[in-house]
Specification:
With 104 residues, this protein is mainly α. 68% of the residues lie in helices and 0% in strands. The chain has one domain.
């Protein structure tokens, strides 16, 4: 069964995406997409908290990056654009290296 869904992007180019990460993931991927997005937000903080040696710099960096990603994601779609996604991955690599450096 085919369902007709008109493509409104040609009439209004502002309708290409929802300009909100949470709304965009709800529309595109449903409840599973929101759970995956939530895990992207929470994973850096949980990874730092679970380490045996607490490091204030790594915890601060993980908290700031996660909270800022949530706040920026409410006003624009951040996940999915190359620059912001690469930046977030780079911050996660820095956090991981700080945690591993303190563990050894």
């Amino acid at each position: 069964m085919l369902v007709y869904a008109p493509d409104l992007s040609y009439e209004n180019p502002r309708l290409l995406y929802a300009h909100n990460d949470i709304a965009n993931h709800i529309v595109a991927f449903g409840a599973l997409g929101v759970l995956v997005l939530g895990s992207i937000y929470v994973a850096p903080i949980l990874a730092i908290i679970e380490t045996t040696q607490r490091n204030a710099a790594a915890l601060y960096l993980g908290l700031i990056s996660s909270v800022s990603l949530v706040i920026f994601g409410l006003t624009d779609s951040i996940i999915g654009f190359d620059v912001t996604t690469v930046y977030y991955c780079f911050v996660l690599v820095i956090i991981r290296s700080i945690v591993l450096d303190n563990a050894s």
